[in-house]
Design a protein that fits this description.
The structure holds two protein chains of two kinds. Chain A is mainly alpha-helical. Chain A has helices spanning 2-38, 43-47, 52-57, 69-78, 81-86, 88-97, 99-103, 106-110, 117-150, 156-183, 187-210, 222-232, 236-259. Chain A is built from 13 helices and no strands. The longest helix of chain B is centred in the middle third of the chain and has 16 residues, at 160-175. Classes of the chains: A mainly alpha, B alpha/beta.
Chain lengths: 264, 294
């Protein structure tokens, strides 16, 4: 039943997923294409003028990393633009399958079939995760091929690490959307709440760079770990824990969805 | 098949339905009638476990409508009052998807229904008119041949020919022993389709009767043309006569119960013309509403 729902959603979202992948890929190719022309820049010298706190806040402490192709790509895209963009892909899928489906009365039909409500939430979540994975794999493959053609050596595994690091991050933020969609529905509320969590989580490490009292609090932010994964490699235990938290939030959303009225 | 006991639903401070107790027997076509906002859709949504009762209980096919709703969903076909399918899917894809979820195959029955309802199964939903969209919904609800069907305003958007065809299909399903609960504010449709009806007003049941007994109690509308001006005193005092209107030689009124005295009064003089309209469920409905101060 869940597989049927996932397959149905992926078929419906196939064009949208391709557009997402194409958009991110074009951006990525542009940055890779620019790299040869700025590869001679001495970032250590350039960033000397910036206060330490600012460099820490924006993950630019290791200026030497910018002089490598993957470091440059991470700095330009994976540290800010892509995380902020990609979370709206799984959120969009969840929104389509839950609050939007409820508001346009698709659920009135779907929930009168033998499909359980928790299965609808699980199907939406897995379809969102699958969409995310598809787009990230396309982004990785497209960027690697383009970089080869341009003559920039990104490194398969380094780029894979950057792409994969987005998966738990986006999954966690989207799971806050699943929680709200399950608890009370509403497209605006779902996107708004998850967007708010995204902003809050992003800001915590930034604030912590300037304010010592946030040193510990920032650890509740997924960006605290994500930034580290980009610089030092993914810590699989941390990534797994983030996914477990995302799954737990989604499960709570499913439980609340089982207990509430479907909007009329 | 369906039992409710004081089923009640409040949406915060807004009433949905209150103390609704009804019983739908196997093999009958049961109508929930009432104006818009009376609570018909709320009652159906409660029976389908889409919303949770505030009070009372309901069972469908012996299963609690909230706690065991999935058991209910395995056995019913549903046409909600409002529904949407994915814009890009054709009617056939929609019907096949829902049939598969129910562990069934759309098969040739879907084509047969589509032919009868003149539904185009190969056009995407976004290109369909409301009536054609409704046809897809009806086929989706029927195609797995459930033992119980719930239709909420099933003929909304259908043209008169298709309404007629739908009523024929309902008749055939009744012949097969299937049970149908339908809500409607179309009295003519309910009169033709239903064995029994429940009339809802402001969330409460006003009456539950067979259509035949309701029609038997309903006033007959009579229009008489006499060859000389009528005297109001002759008709006004007759038992069972109401809504009396006299315009010279033309007398119109409603009459309930025995009409012998009415006929004797009419035939005291020469009758030029006499029309006695068959009582309708609509007439009975309006009268019941008026009697209840609605």
């Amino acid at each position: 039943m869940i597989a049927m729902l996932v397959g149905h959603t992926l078929r419906l979202r196939s064009r949208s997923n391709l557009i997402w992948a194409a958009g991110m890929l074009v951006w990525s190719i542009v940055i890779v294409a620019i790299y040869p022309s700025i590869s001679h820049v001495n970032y250590e010298e350039l960033l000397k003028a910036y206060p330490k706190e600012v460099l820490k806040a924006f993950g630019m402490e290791d200026a030497a990393a910018f002089s490598t192709p993957i470091g440059y790509l991470n700095g330009e895209l994976f540290s800010l633009v892509f995380p902020w963009a990609i979370v709206f892909l799984p959120l969009g899928v969840l929104n389509h399958c839950l609050p939007a489906a409820e508001e346009r009365h698709f659920l009135d039909n779907l929930l009168c079939t033998p499909v359980g409500r928790w299965q609808v939430v699980a199907g939406a979540t897995l379809a969102a995760a699958a969409s995310l994975a598809i787009v990230l794999v396309l982004l990785w493959a497209g960027t690697i091929v383009s970089a080869e053609l341009i003559g920039v050596n990104l490194g398969y595994s380094d780029l894979a690490r950057s792409c994969f690091a987005l998966f738990p991050l986006a999954s966690l933020i989207a799971s806050f959307g699943a929680l709200v969609a399950g608890a009370r529905g509403g497209r605006g509320m779902t996107l708004g709440f998850a967007g708010g969590v995204l902003v809050l989580m992003y800001m915590l490490p930034v604030i912590a760079a300037f304010e010592d009292s946030f040193e510990e609090i920032q650890k509740i932010s997924v960006f605290y770990y994500y930034n580290d994964w980009l610089s030092n490699g993914i810590v699989w235990g941390q990534a797994g824990l983030v996914l477990v938290v995302a799954a737990a939030l989604t499960a709570v959303g499913a439980l609340l969805f089982e207990r509430r009225d479907i909007a009329s | 098949m369906i039992e409710t006991d004081s089923l009640t639903k409040w949406f915060g401070r807004h009433r949905g339905i209150e103390d609704v107790s009804l019983s739908v027997e196997r093999g009958e076509v049961y109508g929930l009638l009432g104006p818009n906002g009376a609570g018909k859709s709320t009652a159906i949504r409660l029976l389908l476990g889409l919303i949770r009762p505030t009070g009372g209980t309901g069972t469908v096919l012996g299963f609690d409508t909230w706690a065991r709703r999935r058991e209910v969903h395995r056995r019913v076909g549903v046409l909600p009052s409002e529904f949407a399918y994915e814009d890009g899917l054709t009617g056939r894809q929609v019907i096949e998807f829902f049939a598969r979820l129910r562990g069934a195959e759309a098969g040739s029955y879907a084509d047969e229904l589509a032919e009868r309802l003149r539904a185009d199964l190969d056009r995407p939903q976004k290109q369909l008119s409301r009536g054609n969209h409704q046809k897809i919904g009806l086929i989706q609800a029927l195609v797995h041949k459930p033992e119980l069907m719930m239709f909420d305003e099933p003929t909304g958007g259908l043209d008169p020919l298709m309404q007629e065809e739908f009523l024929r299909i309902v008749g055939e399903l009744r012949e097969e022993g299937r049970t149908i609960l339908l809500s409607s504010h179309n009295m003519a449709e309910a009169e033709r389709a239903c064995d029994r009806v429940a009339m809802i007003h402001e969330g409460s049941l006003m009456a539950v009767e067979t259509v035949d007994s309701m029609l038997a109690r309903a006033p007959k509308h009579m229009r008489v043309v006499l060859d000389e001006p009528a005297d109001e005193a002759d008709f006004g005092s007759l038992t069972g006569v109401s809504d009396l209107r006299i315009d010279g030689k033309v007398v119109e009124f409603d009459v309930t119960g025995e009409i012998d005295a009415v006929l004797r009064t009419i035939t005291r003089g020469r009758v030029v013309d006499l029309v006695c309209e068959r009582p309708s469920l609509e007439h009975a409905f309006v009268r019941l509403y008026e009697d209840n101060g609605a």
